[in-house]
Write a structure and sequence with these properties.
Layout: E1 11-12, E2 16-17, H1 18-24, E3 29-32, E4 39-44, E5 50-55, H2 59-83, E6 87-92, E7 98-103, H3 114-120, E8 127-133, H4 141-149, E9 153-160, E10 165-170, H5 176-191, H6 194-197, H7 201-218, E11 222-226, H8 232-247
Parallel strand pairs: 8-9
Antiparallel strand pairs: 1-2, 3-4, 4-5, 6-7, 6-8, 9-10, 10-11
Helix pairs in contact: 5-7, 5-8, 7-8
This protein binds zinc ion.
Length: 250
Amino acid sequence: MLESDLCITIWVKGGKSIYEVLNAGKDKAYHLKRLGDAVHLEFMSEGGKVAPMKIDIDLRMAARLNKNDGDARAYVLGNGRKTGHEYLYAYDSLTAKVLATHTDGKYNAVSTPDYLEHGLIDKERKIVVHHNHPNNAPPSISDVMSVSSYSGIDAAFIHGHDGSFYKIQPLQRGNIEKATKAMSKAAKIASRTSEFASLSDLEYAWLIGVSRVSALSKAGFIKLTSNVVMSENIKKMTELMTVAAIQSIK
Ligand SMILES: [Zn+2]
């Protein structure tokens, strides 16, 4: 298992992560020329042609955001493991300012404070929200829906107390709800087949939760980063749900 605090998010001007930029052109080879206030990257296409691309990266901001993610994880997991309750930590990824640290003292829910909600509905904002799941459950339907409906959310992190984590970033905000409904329908039909019949309700709910975000990612509706190992059952369910998600917008 990878530790989530080993993941570094580097922000490129224009709000894209360097990971997105690197994958956007399908170019496998690139050279890191210089590290400093700006990084120069050259991309080499598979045909052997070099397509240079200059990206300026604010490394100090990247370091601050990375520290925020570490602080957020320590806050929600540290407090969560002590009390068994859910905690929320939110920050603004454009300024690195911490916006909220909050708990309702409940083991299976944490609300969004009103003062944070104002920012979350503002599409000009890029807010990152972390929360913990004391029972290690994968992202819930409402976790996925909040990423879809809050236009000011840039990313949501869900941390299980067992060290599992999921990072969800919306890519096609307008289609996530439709796809999720279609996937739930497909999962319901699949639950009646012999393949999944031996699973308990809890196991099935867990399978659906992981497969939901995995399929949304495969279908291109969200970007998912996670350290959770995909079992054969998850792979099968992800396949079914991916087809349903893609068909939902045709
Ligand atoms: Zn949650």
